[in-house]
Amino acid sequence: MTVVLCLGVLVGYALVAFLTARSVFLRGRAAYLEGRTGSGGAHTVGAFERQERQQTEAVALCAGALWPAAVPLLLLRRAVAALVLARPAGPVRPAPGEVAERIEELERALRLGRHAAPPCSGPARMPARDGGRRTDEVPTTRRKS
């Protein structure tokens, strides 16, 4: 009787661990494919297989092995993210209009883009460093043999 009970507990633990790992893996994969991982826009399945699969599998394996702690965190993910990280759960990005205004402001300050000065005509000249006397020859420091 005790052996059957122990075996049932082990099978139950393994089943919940498998389901937790599978859930974490699918969430990680979906987040990468939708571009919610902070690495830019949406990605392809091939890019996931090349770049992120091993990392996502490792995280899923850890979450599955530690399912008594992982399951409550997965269920309360948004609340935990708000409390622990002190920020919203989703990515915080400025509005496109704000980004365009900031770019315009920086271009104006640095005189880039359409705010740039017109190009100079002719070759650029460097100011003389020899007290205003210009020479056509550049002095050399080579010894004559």
Overview of this protein structure:
It is a single chain. This protein has 145 residues and is mainly alpha-helical. The protein is 60% helix and 0% strand. It has 5 helices and no strands. The longest helix is centred in the N-terminal third of the chain and has 33 residues. It is elongated, with a radius of gyration of 31 Å. The termini are far apart.
In brief, what are we looking at here?
With 145 residues, this protein is mostly helical.
Overall residue-averaged pLDDT value:
79
Distance from N terminus to C terminus (CA atoms, Å) equals 104 Å
User: Please, how many helices?
Assistant: 5
| Helicity level | 55-70%
Order of helices and strands: HHHHH
Query: Per DSSP, what share of the residues sits in E-state strands of 2 or more residues?
Result: under 5%
What is the gyration radius calculated from CA atoms? Answer: 31 Å
The largest sheet is: none
Overall body shape? elongated
The parts where pLDDT drops under 50 for at least 5 residues are none
Query: How many beta-strand elements?
Result: 0
Indicate the structural class.
mainly alpha
Helix-strand blueprint:
Blueprint: H1 2-34, H2 45-65, H3 67-75, H4 77-85, H5 96-110
